[in-house]
Design a protein that fits this description.
By secondary structure, chain A is α/β, with parallel strands linked by helices. Chain A is 37% helix and 28% strand. Classes of the chains: A alpha/beta, B alpha/beta.
Chain lengths: 254, 483
């Protein structure tokens, strides 16, 4: 589904990603872990098309097509979704308005009927249940005055509504208390299927107790320096990142 | 918004920012440039005005001569040469307006092109239109239907002929000629405009609307609007304005007066889209307008809603004098400036009566290299016991080369009054747009959603179809400004 080949990206002239290679298949959950400043968030933003990052080399192939030249909204309509680490507030715009417009744009792209406000109302009810959100949230301005946990749940609500093929989750677990983490994770587990794929960017392995990854990648200094199964996450939790750094030094790759 | 109009909006945005910039080729009966007593006498004579009007004009002219152009606004522009302007310009073969069929077909076509069809079978249902083309009113629709309800809606020239007693009583009663430089100029030379009178107890059966069009490059437009709502009556009025693109600047100096008697209500909405000039600041309308209403009677209400998107220069402070006890004044404004536009706009709420209440909601959006200022005065008089004002002024900046300024003035002479003022400034950023784009919205949809959210409190005050128009208009104006 997603194939990243030798991806280099920079922001304001500083190279952050220095040659990422990664392949994710439908039905898989991958976790990308790494210390602060390693480029984890950058990776998810570059895949989604954030304009502040310039790709200097490499390819991001999504469903057989290099999407690097596409606008962020074109990528979204093709089925790439980014759950933000810091969801943005949009005062005066109701959650319902935003999600309905987004969902309808995506449905149009897929050749499905657009939902009128009443149909949307029904459609969103079951999604709200997934993340245990009250439907009053639909009338509130997007993320405006939401608590940290509410914002993150709202991201997963949107994820559920947009039904992406590839979901990028940028530190969704940060700032969540244990109950919210459980709700969000359960939501993701219900959305997960053999037709979609998840890329979880995270600093802690905590969320991986709830969402089991098929693969774990360690990102350091803009490169994936180690990949493994879910046990790698536990090792990181236990030993931190230093031992990997040491391992790399031994291999002379740093 | 329907799919079709959405597609049209996108197409318009792609083709050009200002789609009203065409000029209609018609012949004019023109006055020589410049202003003096003879010109004023000639205007009055041409219009066959009664003696009291000529006196009104001449007196205003002499007051104007003694006044100087205000320099306090936060505006920069080349001094206007008032002797280089034509003060009267009338399309030739002016029809006797017995029927719309007699209006110059070129002019009808112009309004058609602007989306304001004047032929009655095509008109927006429930909206009566007075069309003012350069200096004259060319058509007023639905007159008979309004007359059945007792509502007078006609051009002000016609009102001067047909209802001189109302004109004598109210013209200049809210904005006296010597109020300010531009009001004095308007009082001396105003050519046409709309007049509306709603009798006691009548709720006007339809929306009233005036559509102003500047077409002539050399003439100024000086229109005058007067609306009177008698005891217990109510009326909703909307004006729209566009102009062709010229490399020169045209002066527009209008005066609007509203009078609300006991328990009467006037809602006045404006969608101002005069030509703003090009991205380098060449051309565009100089818009110097005095708008004021008086809540003369108890429990009367005047509400101004404006969406200001056009003009190179905007200088405009729609105000309310709250004279009647328990009267209410409201001002809802969206002012958008882009490229080199400058706006200095706001309101004045003058509380004189007891328990009077005013609300000010101002939303300024600045993009490009534009400058956008809110200037407002809340004045509480000695006798205005228990009066309240609430003001909120929000500014939104797009890009880093524009400016937003807020100049709130508060004068309270009564300790029982309460005045609240809130102000915020925010920036529409890459991150906000990226967020919406990552939800499948294209850039234009994203900007329009953000701007609509920002302006929501104002748009909800507009009549439904105009709210849709206004939000489309803002999206088109901002196309390409972000990022």
């Amino acid at each position: 589904m997603l194939k990243i080949i030798d991806l280099h990206a920079e922001v304001e002239g500083v190279e952050i990603l220095k040659g990422i290679n990664l392949e994710i298949n439908a039905g898989e959950v991958h976790a990308v872990m790494g210390p602060n400043g390693s480029g984890k968030s950058t990776l998810s933003k570059v895949i989604a098309g954030h304009p502040a990052y310039e790709v200097t080399k490499g390819q991001v192939i999504f469903e057989g097509e290099d999407i690097l030249e596409l606008e962020p909204d074109e990528r979204a309509r093709k089925g790439v979704f980014l759950a933000f680490q810091y969801p943005v507030e949009v005062p005066g715009v109701s959650n319902a308005m935003l999600i309905r417009q987004g969902v309808n744009n995506i449905r149009k792209e897929r050749g499905q009927e657009e939902l009128d406000p009443l149909e949307f109302e029904d459609f969103i009810q079951e999604k709200l249940k997934l993340v245990q959100m009250d439907d009053r949230f639909m009338d509130r301005s997007v993320n405006d005055g939401f608590s940290g946990g509410e914002k993150k749940r709202n991201e997963i609500l949107q994820l559920a509504a947009m039904e992406p093929k590839l979901a990028l989750m940028d530190e969704t677990d940060s700032g969540l208390d244990i109950d919210a983490l459980r709700i969000v994770s359960e939501g993701v587990n219900k959305i997960k299927s053999d037709k979609n794929a998840f890329l979880l960017v995270t600093h802690y392995q905590r969320i991986l107790n709830y969402i089991t990854p098929d693969k774990v990648h360690v990102l350091m200094g803009g490169r994936i320096v180690k990949s493994g199964g879910k046990e790698l996450a536990l090792q990181l939790e236990e030993k931190g990142y230093d031992w990997i750094e040491a391992e790399i030094m031994v291999n002379g790759e740093a | 918004m329907s799919k079709l109009s959405e597609a049209q909006a996108v197409e318009t945005a792609a083709s050009k920012k200002y789609k009203y910039g065409f000029r209609t080729n018609i012949e004019y009966e023109e006055f020589p440039k410049g202003l003096n007593e003879d010109i004023i006498r000639e205007i009055s004579r041409k219009k066959n005005e009664p003696e009291f009007m000529l006196e009104f004009r001449l007196k205003s002219f002499h007051q104007w001569l003694a006044m100087v152009e205000p320099e306090w606004p936060n505006l920069n522009y080349k001094k206007i040469d008032y002797q280089e302007i034509q003060y009267h310009s009338v399309p030739k073969e002016r029809p006797k307006l017995n029927s719309l069929d007699e209006v110059d077909p070129e002019i009808l076509a112009t309004y058609e092109k602007l989306g304001i069809p004047l032929s009655e079978q095509k008109m927006l249902a429930g909206v009566a239109v007075d069309a003012v083309f350069d200096s004259v009113s060319v058509a007023t629709t639905f007159k008979e239907k309004l007359a059945e309800a007792g509502v007078i809606f006609c051009s002000i020239s016609e009102a001067i002929q047909e209802h001189p007693e109302l004109i004598k009583k109210y013209l200049g009663s809210v904005v006296p000629a010597n109020d300010n430089f531009f009001a004095a100029l308007n009082s001396a030379v105003f050519s046409d405009g709309s007049f509306c009178y709603v009798p006691k107890g009548v709720t006007c059966p339809m929306e009233l609307s005036t559509y102003f069009r500047i077409n002539n490059e050399n003439s100024g437009q000086f229109e005058r609007t007067l609306i009177i709502a008698e005891e217990g009556s109510s009326v909703s009025y909307l004006e729209g304005c566009t102009a062709p693109m010229f490399d020169t600047n045209q002066l527009h100096a209008a005066v609007v007066e509203l009078v609300a008697l006991d328990n009467a209500e006037i809602r006045y909405s404006t969608v101002q889209n005069w030509y703003p000039g090009d991205e380098n600041g060449v051309g565009g309308i100089y818009n110097f307008v005095t708008k004021r209403g008086i809540c003369k009677g108890e429990r009367s209400k005047i509400s101004w809603t404006q969406v200001e998107t056009g003009s190179a220069i905007t200088w405009k402070y729609p105000s309310v004098i709250l004279k009647g006890d328990h009267s209410v004044g409201e001002f809802y404004s969206v002012a958008l400036t882009n490229d080199m536009q400058q706006a200095d706009t706001g309101t004045k709420m003058i509380h004189l009566g007891k328990n009077t209440k005013s609300t000010i909601v101002s939303k300024g959006i600045s993009a490009g290299k534009s400058q956008n200022s809110y200037r407002g005065l809340v004045k509480i008089g000695k006798k205005a016991d228990g009066s309240r004002n609430y003001s909120v002024c929000d500014s939104m900046l797009i890009g880093s080369e524009c400016g937003a300024h807020t100049f709130p003035y508060i004068e309270s002479n009564n300790s029982t009054a309460s005045v609240e003022h809130e102000a915020t400034t925010s920036k529409i950023g890459e991150d906000q747009i990226f967020y919406l784009q990552s939800r499948g919205l294209d850039e234009e949809q994203a900007i329009s959603l953000i701007i609509n959210g920002f302006c929501k409190e104002v748009f909800k005050e507009l009549p439904m179809e105009f709210a849709v128009e206004a939000s489309k208009l803002l999206a088109i104006k901002l196309e390409g400004s972000v990022g």
